[in-house]
Amino acid sequence: MNPEVHERACRLIDAWHVEGISAPEGEWLDAHLAECTACRGRARANERVLQALRSNTVTVDPALVSRTQARVRLRSRELRENQVRMRALWISCALSWVLGVASAPLVWRAFQWVGLRAALPNLVWKTAFALWWLLPAGAVAALLARQRRHAANQDGYTTLHR
């Protein structure tokens, strides 16, 4: 028989119990196992191994279980809180962009007026206008980077010291 057929059968046998296979693949595998003794033996061996694994029991210290559950709950709460904070940040960023686009012509005229009144070169007041928009975004980016670095340091600390 074709080696590719056996390879496909082996892949399907392995996937059958782990992730499941589609109905057409299951029908093909059943038909193949009816004809092929080698693949049928592999399928039976997999069944025996899975039964042996299922029959094993592992006892775990109840204190370890409760500590693990507490840490999982704590981490889940941290992730939810972080998600709420990030959602608020995205909403405020979107609102900032909308207001910034709406007010850009007015701010441009204000900088132009100040530049003309103070007899500043065009390059100076145009640069000031650009910085007016870039500095807040840069500050927020720096704060987010600092927060991520701090969170990464905290995760590294807790991983190494627990």
Core attributes:
elongated, about 90% helix
Written description of the protein model:
With 162 residues, the chain is an all-alpha fold. It contains five helices and no strands. The protein is elongated. The model has no long low-confidence stretch (mean pLDDT 87).
Give a short summary of the structure.
This protein has 162 residues and is an all-alpha fold. It has five helices and no strands. The longest helix is centred in the middle third of the chain and has 56 residues, at 62-117.
Question: Layout of helices and strands, plus pairs?
Answer:
Blueprint: H1 3-18, H2 23-35, H3 37-55, H4 62-117, H5 122-160
Helix pairs in contact: 1-2, 1-3, 2-3, 4-5
Report the sheet-strand fraction. under 5%
Mean pLDDT: 87
H-E order:
HHHHH
The first-to-last residue Cα distance is 55 Å
Described by the principal axes of the CA atoms, the overall outline is: elongated
Portion of residues in helices? over 70%
* Contiguous uncertain segments of 5+ residues: none
Number of strands: 0
So how many helices?
5
Give the structural class.
mainly alpha
The description of the largest β-sheet is: none
What's the Cα radius of gyration? Answer: 32 Å
Number of domains: 2
